[in-house]
Design a protein that fits this description.
Blueprint: H1 2-20, H2 26-37, H3 48-72, H4 85-88, H5 106-122, H6 134-137, E1 144-149, E2 158-162, H7 166-188, H8 190-193, H9 200-225, H10 236-251, H11 255-275, H12 277-281, H13 287-293
Antiparallel strand pairs: 1-2
């Protein structure tokens, strides 16, 4: 029963993630691939019935959200131009409203709206001052100004500036690169080096690390392949994978060294959280203190 609950939860959460943003497909897709093929660290493929159930739940939830939207959508609004005239005719206050019109078939509307979203994403090409690129995210090169108030009576400024904690981002990037190089070396010299991974825990960590590395790369892949404006917050899912991968890397260290590395990493991370708290919580500070926090030129 416990396993079944996790299966249902996985399918529903995957559908919810996809409903929020299509680029979230990397994680459900990776889960599906590992489960269906039994790729390590999975010991064997999931039963086909369980794979189908999880897929049905995920796709079902994604579809249900559109169904609910169409059911409660009875009035026209600024987004009705996305829909065909046959649907606009059923919306009150629409220029094409017809009280005798009948709602188009749900499957037709579902397919139409998803296709329009795909087309719209492909046409996004207007450049933005705060846009950034995937290779800037992994090294914290560029942030995003979310809010600014410089006209306060106390002569202080308030800013909400989205940027990664440098100590977190750089640590995760370093561990990701080190692990990727390690895997390449292990593949090249596998006959000599893989003998050291006979221990089940080390082997599991190796496979889990490879899975997380692939997840990190998959979350970056859409922004590598498609030239469209993107922002630093698009790196958040990938950064989660890099954080988990960093933890896996630490697991390979001897226990005493592991403790030292963790402590030395956490101390600057906590300091960074406190230091950049004004940008997180919109705390008023003088302009020169804002300037002092802009460590990189592109944090403008």
């Amino acid at each position: 029963m416990h396993r079944f609950q996790w299966l249902v939860a996985t399918g529903l959460v995957a559908g919810a993630a996809l409903s929020i943003k299509w680029t979230a497909l990397a994680t459900p897709g990776l889960i599906a691939l590992v489960s269906f093929l039994g790729i390590p660290p999975s010991e064997k493929p999931l039963p086909l019935s369980e794979c189908l159930l999880a897929g049905f739940l995920g796709i079902g939830l994604y579809t249900l959200i559109f169904k609910l939207h169409f059911m409660i959508c009875s009035k026209s609004g600024p987004g009705d131009a996305w829909m065909p005239l046959s649907f606009q005719a059923t919306l009150k206050n629409s220029a094409h409203y017809n009280p005798e019109a009948k709602r188009p078939w749900f499957v037709q509307m579902f397919a139409h709206l998803n296709w329009r979203m795909l087309e719209s994403n492909a046409r996004i090409n207007v450049r933005h001052h705060w846009e950034s690129h995937w290779y800037q995210w992994v090294v914290n090169w560029r942030g995003l100004l979310m809010f600014s108030d410089r006209d306060r009576p106390d002569k202080q400024e308030v800013q909400v500036y989205l940027i990664g904690n440098p100590f977190v981002v750089y640590t995760c990037f370093a561990f990701s690169v080190i692990f990727a190089i390690t895997v390449l070396v292990l593949v090249r010299y596998r006959k000599q080096l893989l003998r050291g991974f006979s221990n089940q825990d080390r082997k599991y960590n190796l496979y889990m690390g490879i899975l997380l590395l692939v997840g990190w790369l998959l979350n970056l892949l859409p922004y590598i392949l498609v030239d469209r404006p993107a922002f630093v917050y698009h790196y958040i899912p990938g950064l989660y994978y890099a954080m988990l991968l960093s933890g896996i890397c630490v697991e390979f260290l001897p226990p005493k060294v592991r403790v030292v590395v963790v402590v030395l990493a956490i101390i600057p991370m906590v300091w960074g959280l406190i230091y950049w708290a004004p940008w997180i919580y919109a705390l008023p500070i003088p302009a020169d203190q804002h300037a002092a926090r802009r460590w990189l030129k592109r944090w403008d």
